[in-house]
Amino acid sequence: MCYRLKGGAPRENLGSLKAFAFDKTGTLTEGRSCITDTMAVDGASAEDLLALAVAVEALSDHPLTQTIVKDGGERLRGRDLTSATDLKILTGRGVTATVDRETVWIGKAEMFAVEGVPALHTATTEAIAALRESGRTTMGAQG
User: Fold this and answer.
1) What residues does 106 pair with on adjacent strands?
2) Which uninterrupted H or E stretch holds 141?
3) Is 71 designated active site?
4) Of 7, 24, 46, 131, which is most buried by a Cβ count within 10 Å?
5) Strand partners, 105
6) Which range has the worst mean pLDDT, 39-43, 52-56, 70-74?
7) 52, 62, 67: which is closest to 140 by C-alpha?
8) Domain spans of the chain?
9) Residue 14: enclosing H or E segment and its boundaries?
């Protein structure tokens, strides 16, 4: 995207800038976040993982969950989706809910293996590290 600057004042102001914002998720350029990658590990399918995330996040009202539900729902169009119950919000970290009588945890990688939340599998932490290295915002899931 290119912008044309008119006059000398905007160019002069560039010299006093102390920070620039770079868009990694589409939020700045498109005005909304979007799902960029779904990486399943330990024999799970990306489609099953996404279906689980959509089921759980459909119960939440956090702005990022709206992205998961919308984009995930579009990617899974035509598939029967399961439902989640008993959503519990872990403020600033993630959520937990029940899907098919199993507890599911979704959130920041740092929420796992702390305060009774099960640890992520090594393959999951490696996938998260790789995504973060490429500038992605990540979420882990365990269920």
Assistant:
1) 95, 141
2) strand 140-142
3) no
4) 131
5) 96, 142
6) 39-43
7) 52
8) 24-142
9) helix 9-14
**Residue 131, pLDDT score:** 86
Burial 19-37 (b: 16+ CB within 10 A, else e): eeeeeebebeeeeebebee
Residues 6+ positions from 92 with CB-CB distance below 8 Å: none
CA distance 142 to 76: 20
Half-sphere exposure of 38 (CA within 13 A, CB side): 18
* Element containing residue 102 per DSSP (H, E): strand 102-107
> What is 24-142's CATH number?
3.40.1110.10
Kind and range of the H or E run holding 48: helix 46-57
Residue 21, both tokens: 């914002």
Per-residue pLDDT band at 18 (split at 50, 70, 90): low
The one catalytic residue among 23, 37, 86, 100: 23
Tally of CA atoms within 13 A in the half-sphere of 132 that contains its CB = 12
- The DSSP bridge partners found for residue 26 are none
114-143 pLDDT per residue, tens: 988 999 989 889 888 988 888 888 887 777
Q: Which two tokens stand for residue 7?
A: 């006059």
